[in-house]
Amino acid sequence: MNPMEQGVGPVIPEAVCQVPARVARDGPDGGLRAVLRVLYTCCRLALLVACVAVVLVLSPLLLLLGACARWLPLPVRGVTRLALLYGTYLLTCEVSAVVNDVGFHVSRRRTPLDPSEHRARCTTLVRRSTGLFFGPGLRAIGVRVHWPEPPLLDPERPVVILLRHAGLLNMQLGIHLATDVLRRRPYGVCKSAAACLPGAAALLRLTSVIPLRWNAEGRARAAREFASMGPRLGRDAAVILPEGTNFSTRRRWARIAYLRRSGRHDLAIAAEAMPHVMPPLARGAGALLATAPDAQVLVVGHTGLEDVLPWRLGPGYSSHDEAALHVSWRSFAPEEVPRDPEGFEAWLYERWRELDAWVLATRRGRTAKPGRTDRVDWDDPPPR
Question: How many CB atoms lie within 10 A of CB 296?
């Protein structure tokens, strides 16, 4: 996200109030907009405080239900794990992000930083906040996280992360991969709903991920951002979710029906054979890669987060009782990824076919062996 000049007065911390200084100087209309923005931010802070208070009050009951989740009926089990997961996220990543954001901007006013120091400091704070959730936070509620070894990538070339979209907190997972595993600043776009709480908004402010309203204007701006993002990456990472929306059986079949109406019967047939993933959309990632010819690609799969929303998983989706998050990736050198639209779309569908096979094998407790094995960094699920 592009840096903004912050601050509207001594009462509201600079990091909390997202009002450009120039707006406050534009006269009565600018002043009214500034006041409304402050009220909106205060409401979001109040919502966060209320959510944290509810989680703290209910935490003994949630922990007890979480310990017994395996023996609960499937709908109750999903709701219990959803409450545990999101409550842990609020207590770790959300609170940490707000505290880090406020502290960072206060210290920056006292000691100005040059651009490189500013970027490095932001990346470190983001890594701390997301790492608190994906590390100690998930372990505290009994969720085991299985990470593969870091991929072998050229540190001087940019990386485009193509991330599967299923379950909750997918963008936070992509940001964590970029900052903690790859040690790079994340770029990208996301829906504005992802920044509804102040901690998530603070997290995005410390990165170059832009929240957008997902209407026609927002989608058009997202396309422009992807088309112009390549030259800005440098050695950083772009996080893209090619499926465009969270997985559900209804959405998957709607996407397949759209492909058939559009005359893309070959893609519809391919999508029908992938019951664990949404048919990917190649336009955004393809536009970015066309302007970043030296970018490496990291295809990232995960499974486990979707189990907190079991009502979205259809009868063809493999069941999974283990409280675990499995993450895997496969890296590709620039010359291995087609840059022409048709070639990239076919390549992307093949990668998603491999992801579908990996999800199925992982949820059944087997080792996935998709595609070529000489460059595969897939994580092997633990034996049961």
Answer: 21
The DSSP 8-state label assigned to residue 133 in this structure reads I
CA distance 247 to 302: 12
CATH topology of domain 143-377: Glycerol-3-phosphate (1)-acyltransferase (3.40.1130)
CA distance 212 to 162: 19
Both tokens assigned to 18: 């997202």
**At a CB cut-off of 8 Å and minimum separation 6, what does 133 contact?**
88, 89, 92, 93, 169, 172, 176
Q: How do the domains of the chain map onto residue ranges?
A: 143-377
Rounded Cα distance between 307 and 124, Å, is 30
In the numeric block, which tokens belong to residue 291?
């302007």
**In this structure, what are the phi and psi dihedrals at residue 329, rounded to the nearest 5 degrees?**
-150, 160
What is the per-residue pLDDT for 3? 37
Contact by Cβ (8 Å): 310, 74: yes
* pLDDT tens by residue, 258-309: 999 999 999 999 999 999 999 999 999 999 999 999 999 999 999 989 988 8
pTM of the model: 0.80
Give the long-range contacts of residues 207-212, CB within 8 A, separation 24 or more. 207/1, 207/122, 207/123, 207/126, 207/175, 207/179, 208/1, 208/2, 208/232, 208/236, 209/1, 209/171, 209/175, 209/239, 210/1, 210/2, 211/1
Flag the least confident range among 41-55, 189-203, 228-242: 41-55
Asked if 124 contacts 96 with a C-beta cutoff of 8 angstroms, the reply is: no
Confidence band for 28, pLDDT divided at 50, 70 and 90: low
Mean pLDDT value across the chain: 81
Start-to-end C-alpha separation, the chain? 43
